TrEMBL record, chain B:
InterPro entries assigned: STAS_dom, STAS_dom_sf
This protein's name: STAS domain-containing protein
PROSITE patterns hit by this protein: STAS
UniProt-recorded Gene Ontology molecular function terms: anti-sigma factor antagonist activity
Annotated Gene3D superfamilies: STAS domain
Coiled coil location: none
STAS domain segment(s): 14-101
PANTHER family: ANTI-SIGMA FACTOR ANTAGONIST TM_1081-RELATED-RELATED, STAS DOMAIN-CONTAINING PROTEIN
Signal peptide (from-to): none
UniProtKB/TrEMBL annotation, chain C:
Segments forming domain Response regulatory: 6-122
SMART domains for the chain: PP2C_SIG, REC
Residues bearing PTM 4-aspartylphosphate: D55
Keywords: Hydrolase, Phosphoprotein
Organism from which the protein derives: Pseudomonas xionganensis
Domain of life of the source: Bacteria
Protein name per the record: SpoIIE family protein phosphatase
Entry keyword Aminoacyl-tRNA synthetase: no
Length: 100, 101, 564
């Protein structure tokens, strides 16, 4: 995965930022269905990248969306954003090692 | 259907035991039973005590054995025929070619 | 090394898509990617990948719908779809399968598991491919075979049905492709007006069983048309089959020689189940197999002895193949003789018998039987038969008009040789006699059997007064014939031109004690028992019939006018 690895890291970061936007919009619109789908997708890619804490939070959010417990969403979303900020820093430093 | 081939201790007689249906499905196995023996038997015994059914293909196979065993000089006995089997042998008048008991 | 596959990845998350396509292409496969179901569908149509990795939840068109449509497009070929999912609820997994998914791959992806799954699905895909190819091949072969059977059957029908199975006194029942079960049914008018019938059943099935039917039919029809008797035909059939068939293949058969004028039937049964003589009033007689089937014995060892039974109008002879007795029901029981006799015991009318047996078979086994042959031949008045005139292959020589010939057949020859076909062939070279061929043959046959049986063998036709005596008569006939060393039968044939047409005078003499033929003829014309029909018949069919001067023979005459 040597050549593709930095690209993959970049792709994940970009993709995740987009998903966070979608999540935020859905939460604001009170759209439980979209919230659930976006959280589900995000959960999958997080698990693939080994961001297990983030994946777990997404799973909770997906569950909340499924049960239409929108009151839980703002708090979970905030936790997700905080966790993603940490993951992003980790990924950026990982990315540095591959810059020649 | 299973076919077992039992040569006598002196190799003079070969007993072929046929269990189950004796029909076209038995073709290859029946041939193997007398072609793949090391001795050259003088006489043959076909033991039909566990033969439940016999069709005209089986009659054909018996004729092939008869040819193999020397045609008109062949010594072949068909033993322990059940009534149904005996009836089919009788209709075809095979007692003219084989000793049937 | 597994084949390089072309694999479609449909995944809306760019990172996951990239991760997966990297793993898959590292494994040596060609990768196509789509970010939603609709794109996946378009790519599938365009590139026809062999395997699909499909995310379940995607925008625009989800994986379930895309999977359904891809399976539809793929048709019979197996395009395995592996659902990529972090779904965990059972219900969602069931949806994946229902949409046509073949397997799942859970996130996070595991390279080793993914590789194993792709390999397993590829095996399945190839298996399905092989199955389809073999199915198509089998279908092709089967079609080929059916076509060959159609052609073979058409040829066979031409040969086999050139006879008189459609005569009003014959009823039969045979499945259309019975010939490929080795069954064969033939019937032909004899030149003398009687009828030969053969029901045969070759060992085995399919083409090998059908192949012997052709020579059998050729011999049967050829020899019957030339006037040969049943024993000559039997010997020839046996010799021919023995010569051409591989050892172990033979033909169980029953042959009938029905004589309407003499009201008798001659029967030979080698290997067929009991047939039956069903009398209009009176007990039925089993026609038992007394011989090995045709094609088993060397010609020298063959036994052509037949049984002869007297018949009355309305009596029927019924023959069947072993497919009737061996019809099976779901419990693997055989229909058997007892069930057949039950039907016969009910004594159904002629028009009903075959139908009722068929019905009984159907009730018993619950299905149509395809290797069943049944035939029923009734004794009727000959004039009801509407038989066609004798057919001749050549044009005939009308100038063969002025000759005479004499033949003497002696002891040894009389035992083995039937001179009638030979004499008939000779006489029918004369064009003018052909329209009377049937009558001519009948008269020749009657004269010959009269000379042989009463003259040479000294048999007493009074014996034939009842059925018991009838059997005794034929027993004595074969016993005396077997021991025959001397004696003769002479034929004098004289052809004379007459007023543009011609006249045939046949005189038959024998070595017997001699008799007052003139008185006998007059007396027998009044008789109508089992005996004496012969001479009355001669009298009826020929133009003039008288005893020869020395009492040793009978003379008959036929004539024809120029326009005949």
């Amino acid at each position: 995965m040597e050549d593709e690895y930095p690209v993959l890291l970049d792709t994940f970061v970009l993709d995740s930022e987009e998903r966070l936007l979608v999540l935020r919009k859905a939460e604001q619109a009170g759209d439980a269905q979209n919230l659930r789908l976006a959280a589900h997708s995000f959960k999958g890619s997080c698990s693939n990248m080994g961001a297990l804490l983030l994946s777990g939070l997404c799973k909770q959010l997906e569950e909340a969306g499924r049960r239409e417990q929108l009151e839980l969403a703002p708090d979970l979303l905030e936790q997700i954003e905080r966790e993603f900020a940490i993951v992003r820093i980790l990924l950026k430093s990982e990315r540095q090692r591959y810059r020649r | 259907m299973t076919i077992t081939s039992l040569p006598s201790s002196d190799g003079h007689e070969l007993t072929i035991v046929i269990a189950g249906r004796f029909d076209f499905g038995a073709h290859q196995e029946f041939r193997n039973a007398y072609e793949r023996v090391s001795s050259t038997p003088k006489s043959y015994v076909i033991d039909l005590k566990d033969t439940t059914y016999l069709d005209s293909s089986a009659l054909g196979m018996l004729l092939l054995l008869r040819d193999h065993a020397g045609g008109d000089s062949a010594q072949i006995r068909l033993l322990n025929c059940k009534p149904d089997v005996r009836k089919i042998l009788a209709i075809s008048n095979f007692e003219q070619l084989f000793q049937i008991a | 090394m597994p084949e390089r596959l072309s694999i479609l990845i449909a995944e809306d998350s760019a990172a996951d898509r990239m991760l997966l396509s990297t793993i898959v292409s590292r494994q040596g496969h060609r990768v196509l990617t789509a970010s939603n179901g609709l794109e996946a569908l378009a790519l599938f149509e365009q590139e026809r990948p062999q395997l699909v990795l499909m995310d379940a939840l995607m925008p625009v068109m989800d994986g379930f719908e895309a999977a359904r449509r891809i399976k539809q497009l793929a048709g019979e070929a197996l395009v395995p779809i592996i659902f990529l999912t972090s779904l965990s609820e059972g219900e969602a997994l069931v949806r994946c399968l229902e949409a046509g998914g073949d397997d799942f791959l859970a996130k996070p992806y595991n390279r080793i598991i993914l590789e194993a799954k792709i390999k397993a699905m590829d095996r399945l895909r190839r298996l399905q491919d092989t199955v389809l190819q073999q199915r198509d091949l089998i279908a092709k072969h089967n079609e080929h075979l059916l076509n060959e059977q159609r052609v073979a059957k058409a040829v066979f029908d031409k040969v086999a049905h050139s006879g008189c199975l459609n005569a009003p006194n014959i009823r039969y029942l045979q499945s259309p492709y019975a010939v490929f079960n080795g069954d064969l049914l033939l019937a032909a008018y004899k030149p003398s007006g009687g009828m030969h019938v053969l029901l045969g059943d070759f060992t085995g099935h399919g083409l090998p069983a059908a192949i012997g039917a052709m020579p059998l039919a050729e011999v049967f029809y050829g020899m019957t048309a030339k006037g040969y008797g049943l024993t000559d035909i039997l010997r020839e059939l046996n010799a021919k089959l023995r010569h051409i068939l591989p050892r172990g293949v033979f033909c169980c058969a029953a042959l009938l020689n029905v004589s309407f004028q003499r009201q008798e039937v001659e029967v030979w049964n080698g290997g067929l189940p009991d047939g039956y003589l069903l009398r209009r009033d009176g007990p039925r007689t089993a026609l038992v197999s007394r011989h090995l089937p045709l094609g088993v014995l060397e010609p020298a060892a063959f036994n052509d002895s037949c049984e002869v039974y007297p018949l009355a109008l309305g009596d029927r002879i019924f023959l069947l193949s072993d497919g009737v007795l061996e019809a099976c029901n779901a419990q693997q029981e055989l229909f058997g003789e007892a069930r057949l006799l039950q039907v016969l015991d009910a004594n159904p009318a002629a028009a009903q018998l075959l139908y009722q047996i068929q019905q009984a078979l159907h009730d018993f086994s619950g299905q149509q039987q395809d290797d069943v042959s049944l035939v029923e031949v009734s004794l009727v008045e000959e004039r009801q038969l509407n038989r066609p005139p004798l057919a001749f292959a050549d044009s005939g020589q009308s100038h063969l008009l002025d000759w005479s010939a004499s033949f003497e057949f002696r002891g040894e020859t009389l035992r083995h040789f039937n001179p009638l076909p030979f004499l008939l062939q000779l006489l029918l070279e004369v064009q003018g006699l052909r329209p009377q061929g049937g009558a001519l043959y009948t008269v020749l046959a009657e004269l010959y059997s009269n000379a042989l049986e009463h003259g040479v063998l000294g048999l007493d036709s009074q014996l034939k007064q009842d059925a018991e005596g009838f059997a005794e008569y034929y027993r004595q006939r074969s016993a005396r014939l077997l021991q025959l060393r001397e004696g003769y039968v002479r034929f004098h044939l004289q052809l004379l031109p007459e007023g543009g047409g011609g006249r045939l005078v046949i005189t038959v003499e024998d070595s017997g004690k001699g008799f007052d033929a003139q008185a006998l003829i007059l007396r027998e014309m009044r008789l109508d028992g089992l005996s004496g029909r012969g001479l009355a018949l001669i009298r009826q069919l020929s133009e003039r019939c008288r005893g020869s001067a020395d009492g040793q023979g009978i003379s008959v005459e036929f004539s024809w006018s120029p326009d005949a």
